[in-house]
Structure formats: structure tokens, C-alpha cells
Amino acid sequence: MNNKPDAIVFFDLDGTLLTSDVTVAKSTIEAINILHKNNIMPVIATGRTICEVQHIMKQAKIDSIVAMNGQSVFYQGEHIFSNNIDISVIDKVMAYSKTKTNIPLSFYSDKIMRISELSDPAIKFYQYLKQSVPPVDQDIYRNEPIQMLLLLCEEGEEQYIKLFPELSFIRNTPYCVDVFNHGGSKAFGIKKLLENKKFSDVPTYAFGDGLNDIEMFELVDHPIAMGNCVEQLKKLAEFITDDNNNDGIAKGLNKFGLI
């Protein structure tokens, strides 16, 4: 690929680039191969951290990622941005969780995933992702920069939203809420990438299905919703493709003449 791509396509992961069995469809892999040949850059834009999706990136042949809802950005393997949560803020969230809600936490960075305690909510969430439960280390944030927390719960985030205005809270699955610095989003991370690489004039496309894709859809030139997306995204989409289990990525890319 040339130094400057002719277009950039941002792909959400769960419910979008990944099928329901958490794999990348053959049609998607073939489509991404054609994108590379056409000098079009595929970039993952996800709520997940890079350390948990490296196997997916390798399978899909994608080496750029806007991770943790824009809190960390890598372009062709180069780390160009991180947005760390202040230790004092995590201290307050930890204290509130322990004394008021009993909601366990996960800690995410570019390098590690840890949980505050081994609990039923943690087991349920990581089973949902088809992942192993991370190790327990409730003090990890004192030793490693943390870009995102997870509230491991099926409800109860409203009280956190009121108490911690310095943070953003987005429910990304039925079993967790993503937590990061206020103002952060996939769009925030995408802006950092485009600014850093001087790609402001490059046409941008995005595929997504969830609530954490809203800001991304509002930013890019061509937002493309999966057939399985939430209703809020349908209103923002330029085009609604098929769902993630029926070649939605390949069909959407073909619709826009990218492959």
C-alpha cells in the first residue's frame, strides 16, 4: 500500500467484522484482501483492547486499530495515541464500587487485562466473549497506565454516570459497561489518527452495529450499518447492509465500489 491510502474503512468488531461465533467470515477476509490491493486501508475500531484482538487482526490481515473506544490508536503497528485514566479517578470508582454497588471492575490497557475480583459477573461476561477470565489484580492501575475500565454488570450504571462526570459510560454488551475519560469515543480516536497521519482529505467509511458506533457514524463520510444494528444507527446510516452472519461486510464494500 502507498504511504497515503485512497480511502480508509473503519470496522467495528463484535456484531460487525465478527460473526456470531466470534470469527471472521471467509467473504470478509477476501474483501479485505481486495481493499489492500486497491490501496484502501482497513482499520479496526472497537471497544476492545489490542491485546485481546491480535489474533483477529492477524486473521483479517489488519494492522491498524482504534482500540478501547478511541482511547488508544495504532497505525500499521505504530502506537500514535493513548488516553490514560487518572489514578485518583480510578481510586474513586473502586471505592464506590466496593462500598455502594458491589459491581466488579475490569482494567484494560494496550498490554494487559485484569479484573478486580473473580465473580459471577466476570465469568458471565468473558463467557459471552468466548474468552478466558483475566487474572485478578485490583491494584494493577497503580503500576500500569489504564485507558479503560469495565463495569461488569447487567444494570446499575446510571448512578455512576451521575457521580463521575469526568468519565463516559457506554453499555457495549448486556454484561458490561465501557468506562473511559469523558469526551472519548471511537470518533475521538479516529480524529487523532487522521490528524497524526495528515489524512484529513482521505475519504472515510465505517461499518458498525452498536451504541458505541454512534459518534463514529457522525464523523465519517460514509456510515454503513449492519443489518443487525441497533435502531439508533439506522437513522445515521447512509446504507444498511446485510447482517454480520450473511456477508454484510463484503456486500457493503461492494455497494460503495471499494472492492
Summarize the structure.
With about 260 residues, the protein is α/β, with parallel strands linked by helices.
> How many helical elements?
10
- Work out the helicity level: 25-40%
**Any low-confidence stretches, pLDDT <50, length ≥5?**
none
* Major beta sheet, strand line-up: 5-4-3-2-1-11-12-13
Sketch the topology as an H/E string, one letter per element: EHHEHEEEHEEHEHEEHEHEHEH
3D shape: globular
> What share of the residues does DSSP label as strand, in percent?
15-25%
Oligomer: single chain
Give the strand tally.
Answer: 13
Q: Please give the alpha-carbon distance between the first and last residues.
A: 15 Å
Major β-sheet annotation:
8 strands, mixed
Structural class, judged by helices and strands? Answer: alpha/beta
Q: Nearest-angstrom radius of gyration?
A: 18 Å
- The average pLDDT value, as a whole number, equals 95
What does this molecule look like?
- The structure is a single chain.
- Strands 5-4-3-2-1-11-12-13 form an eight-stranded mixed beta sheet, sandwiched between helices. It has a five-stranded antiparallel beta sheet with strand order 7-6-8-10-9, with helices on one face.
- It has ten helices and 13 strands.
- It has helices spanning 13-17, 26-37, 50-60, 87-101, 120-128, 158-163, 186-196, 214-219, 231-234, 248-255; strands at residues 7-11, 40-45, 65-67, 72-75, 78-82, 105-108, 113-115, 148-151, 167-173, 176-181, 204-208, 222-225, 239-240.
- With 259 residues, the chain is α/β, with parallel strands linked by helices.
- It is globular and about 55 Å long.
